[in-house]
Amino acid sequence: MSPATHFLSGWVFANCFDLDRRDRALITWAAVVPDVDGLGVIAEVATRNTSHPLMWFSEYHHLLHNLWFAIFCMLAALAFARRKWLTSTMVLAAFHLHLLGDIVGARGPEGYGWPIPYLWPVNKTVSLSWSGEWPLNSWQNMLITLALLGISIWIIRRKGRSPVEPISLAADRAVVDALRRRMQIAA
């Protein structure tokens, strides 16, 4: 799934619980943070035509998609959350929601399905994958993203906060106000 879909899935998931903004943000970001290893694409693209290309994305993408990084994120949430146990447990669940999304819907255009090295580096042979994994740009992923957007609109109307909330309170207020004005005009 795309980073945007992972972000929306985490944000919608976080809004299923009665938590404050910080705790919702921790859960939201936990659904995205496994892809921090994807930043290697910057070095790979920048050096691809050099005599020593850095294959950081090709070689290392999905290495942080593992149980140990999930536990690290859970422990970080335990340290920073207000509702420590609920939030840290939901961070662990959101992290695994990301892994599930990648297992079912992240196959590349060349047909390669990224295996999830779940126990890396302790066990380098065990990985999670699914032979029926659909492509990243599949109708299934688009449908999931549209459903998450629909739920997000409902949350905006009902709870007065938007997916921009973990990034900026001012932008969140602007999005909420704009959507509410738009909904009044349509009604």
Would you kindly provide a written description of the structure presented here, covering whatever features stand out?
The chain is mainly α and 187 residues long. The protein has one domain. The protein is 59% helix and 0% strand. The chain is built from eight helices and no strands. It has helices at residues 3-14, 21-30, 40-47, 56-60, 67-80, 84-105, 139-159, 169-186. Helix 1 packs antiparallel against helix 2 (21-30) and helix 2 packs parallel to helix 6 (84-105). The longest helix is centred in the middle third of the chain and has 22 residues, at 84-105. The two termini are 34 Å apart. The relative contact order is 0.15. The mean pLDDT is 93.
Short account of what is shown:
This protein is an all-alpha fold.
Which runs of at least 5 residues are low in confidence (pLDDT < 50)?
A: none
Give the C-alpha Rg.
18 Å
Biggest sheet: strands, sense, closure? Answer: none
Distance, first to last CA: 34 Å
Classify the helix fraction into a percent range.
Answer: 55-70%
Strand content: under 5%
Task: List its traits.
187 residues, 8 helices, 59% helix
Topology:
Blueprint: H1 3-14, H2 21-30, H3 40-47, H4 56-60, H5 67-80, H6 84-105, H7 139-159, H8 169-186
Helix pairs in contact: 1-2, 1-6, 1-7, 2-5, 2-6, 5-6
